[in-house]
Amino acid sequence: MSLLLKNRFDAKKFGGRIRDWRKKKGITQEQLSRMLNVSTNHLAKVETGGRYCSIELLQEISDCLNVGTDDLLNGNVPPVAVCGACLLYTSPSPRDK
What's the CA gap between 13 and 25, in Å, rounded? Predict the structure, then answer.
């Protein structure tokens, strides 16, 4: 599979992340749509992947939800949260002796 296809933008996942963050913050679609000055219908379509949003709207969503645009676009999670119990040993390690 080519790198281009592998990294293709998934509008449904993107919209799902917006929905998940919105719900986590305890905000309804109606409330967020008013904050963003867009229709509830438009926000619902973005959340289901049926419509894209502008970069400006992405930034406004990010600001309203207090989450980074990269987290919304890519679902990035800080490495500590992914692997908080992992330890990385570099040589020389005590086991190398």
Answer: 18
Q: Cβ distance 55 to 73 under 8 Å?
A: no
Cα-based distances in Å from 21 to 41, 47, 57, 62, 75: 18, 11, 15, 10, 11
**Whether 82 contacts 68, CB under 8 Å:** no
Find out whether 87 and 29 touch, Cβ atoms under 8 Å: no
How distant, in Å, are the alpha carbons of 18, 79, 86, 92, 96 from that of 11? 11, 24, 32, 46, 48
Smallest CA-to-CA distance from 65 within 23, 93, 34 is with 23
- Give tens-digit pLDDT for 74-84: 887 544 444 44
Q: Which amino acid is at 71?
A: D
The pLDDT tens digits for 15-71 are 999 999 999 999 999 999 999 999 999 999 999 999 999 999 999 999 999 999 999
